[in-house]
Amino acid sequence: MARLLQDPSKLHPSEWYTANQMQHASTESQKSRSECMIAESWRLVDEIEKTTQKTQSDVNKKLEQRREEIKFWKQELDNKLEQIVHETEILLTFKNRLERALEGCKEPLVVAQKCLLYRQRRVGIDLVHDEVEQQLLKEVEVLQGIIALLGRTLEQTNEQIRRNRSAKYDLDMDLKDKFTALTIDDYCASLTNDTPHIIYADNAMKLEGNFVRPEDWIDFTNINVEKADKQRNNSLALKALIDGILSQIANDMRKQCEMVNNAFRNRVKEVKVAKHKLETLLAMVMDETASQEKNIAALKKAITDKEAPVKVAQTRLEARNHRPNVELCYDTVHSSLMSEVQEITKNIQRQDALAQAQTELKGLSRRQLSLEEEIKVKENTLYIDEVLCMQMRESVCISNF
């Protein structure tokens, strides 16, 4: 019975007390560690929350800054695009002006060349390298020079339009990309922690090889802007050049056209004066011819009128030569008859004036033919210059291009 009461498996009360204390101490220790862990966890959670919020806030701010930056450059590109489009449209109108100017030079050139061709039909002394021909040749030279200048300027304008369109294309592409980027960043800015359908994207952290640096991004757009500015400035300079050229060529064409017209008017006036003088000379020659013809007729009549007296005198002499013997006397009658015959014969022989008069008449006839031919030459010249050329030149109208 005593053995049962003293069972060796039973612990001492002190051990029980100690074990309870150890359990209490261990539990208190575990609880303390757990409480510390909980506190640390809440601190860490709070810290992470604050860090996450701060980081997300920083990202939101940077995203907003990036959006503003994209908007700024997009606005710059929009402005440059509007400017380059406007300048290109204006340059196209200048191109049309150049084309009209080129077309407007064709008729004056054809007219000038036709005038030179017509004036080759002048004949005789009037086929002369006069002031009209000099001015016409100069007009052809001026017009050909203007056409060449307009052709080069038109090529330059076409090239500038091509460059403007190239700059516009770059601006369009850049604007398109920035619009896409801004749309994406606007979408990103609209996302919150409560936005539905947000997902994990495992590959989002991978940086692909086509990423560029922000500096390169700015440089790329800045190059496009500078290119557009350069082409716009080139367009402005070209417009001023074209304006000056068109104004100058119109003045040069009008000036040279008036020089040619003045030369024509002066030449026509000069030819008319020469023709009038020739007609006056012709009238004078014709009057002189008529007088000479009358003179020849009078000379012939005078010669005819002397035939009867000569015959009478010679008949008398012949009759008196038959007087008989001593009656055949060289008396005063006979000597007078001899003198009369000699005198009349001498006077008849002096009628060589008739031959000279006839020679003069032939000379007057030749002079008349020559004057008539020269008048026809002048009439031909007047028809060419006044009718063919001057009337054709009236159709030439040089206006501002």
UniProtKB/TrEMBL annotation:
Signal peptide location: none
Entry keyword set: Cell projection, Cilium, Coiled coil, Cytoplasm, Cytoskeleton, Flagellum
Keyword field contains Cytoplasm: yes
Cellular component per GO, a single term: microtubule cytoskeleton
GO biological process: cilium assembly; cilium movement involved in cell motility
Sections of the chain in a coiled coil: 354-381
InterPro entries membership: Tektin-like, Tektins
Subcellular locations according to the entry: Cytoplasm, Cytoskeleton, Cilium axoneme; Cytoplasm, Cytoskeleton, Flagellum axoneme
Stored Pfam families: Tektin (PF03148)
Role, per record: Microtubule inner protein (MIP) part of the dynein-decorated doublet microtubules (DMTs) in cilia and flagellar axoneme. Forms filamentous polymers in the walls of ciliary and flagellar microtubules.
Family: Belongs to the tektin family.
Oligomeric and partner information: Microtubule inner protein component of sperm flagellar doublet microtubules.
Name the record gives this protein: Tektin
Recorded name of the encoding gene: Tekt1
